[in-house]
Amino acid sequence: DAGVIQSPRHEVTEMGQEVTLRCKPISGHDYLFWYRQTMMRGLELLIYFNNNVPIDDSGMPEDRFSAKMPNASFSTLKIQPSEPRDSAVYFCASSPRNEQYFGPGTRLTVT
Amino acid sequence: AQKVTQAQTEISVVEKEDVTLDCVYETRDTTYYLFWYKQPPSGELVFLIRRNSFDEQNEISGRYSWNFQKSTSSFNFTITASQVVDSAVYFCALSEGDSNYQLIWGAGTKLIIKP
């Protein structure tokens, strides 16, 4: 079975632009997590879903960030408008119960 | 207070040496899970092991072994006969309760294996 798939792998955009990150979880996994990783702050949980329903979005930094999971096989994380401080690697992970399996990440650079 | 402490920020050893990465956790729950993940220079996060709080048996997988001791709230990870490919950042993580699947992450230990 394929692992977690994320696209794009790299994204370079200008400040103020909208950015959409995409994730396809492992089939059959009920949980989906979005993380952000930076050198300064380490790995931060942004939001997670259970059976497509957002459970905890307390880690979403601002209203500029939004996440959706319209079905069991797809989720998006949107940043609008983007700012340079949003530059980071964004990971999606899915989980059947306890252990989480991570995608390769999207490296976002906002100039 | 940190719930998962990886006190070693960076460790550097020469290839073929054994190395132990420390992880100390803090929780009031009787049911919890502990994890180790590896993040090589390529950036992906790789799941290595999960251990639940009721299973204190040590685990060995090839050159990797894990020592879980509830008495000291530690879940240490040892690599035997280290290899250059083991160079990575290693994260320890905790989830509390039986139905809470959020992970509380340690800060990570950067392991450098020199040839």
Task: Tell me the helix content of chain B.
Answer: under 10%
User: Based on CA inertia axes, which overall geometry of chain A fits?
Assistant: globular
Order of helices and strands of chain A: EEEEEEEEEEE
Order of helices and strands of chain B: EEEEEEEEEEEE
* Class from helix and strand fractions of chain A: mainly beta
> How would you sum up the global shape of chain B?
globular
The counted number of beta strands of chain B is: 12
Q: List low-confidence stretches of chain B.
A: none
Rounded mean pLDDT score of chain B:
94
Spans of chain A of at least 5 consecutive residues whose pLDDT stays below 50 are none
Helix content of chain A: under 10%
Q: What secondary-structure arrangement, pairings included, does this model have?
A:
The complex is a heterodimer of chains A (111) and B (115).
Chain A: E1 5-7, E2 10-13, E3 19-24, E4 31-38, E5 42-50, E6 53-56, E7 65-71, E8 74-79, E9 88-95, E10 101-102, E11 106-110
Parallel strand pairs in A: 2-11
Antiparallel strand pairs in A: 1-3, 3-8, 4-5, 4-9, 5-6, 7-8, 9-10, 9-11
Chain B: E1 4-5, E2 10-14, E3 19-21, E4 24-25, E5 32-39, E6 46-52, E7 59-61, E8 64-69, E9 74-79, E10 88-96, E11 104-105, E12 109-114
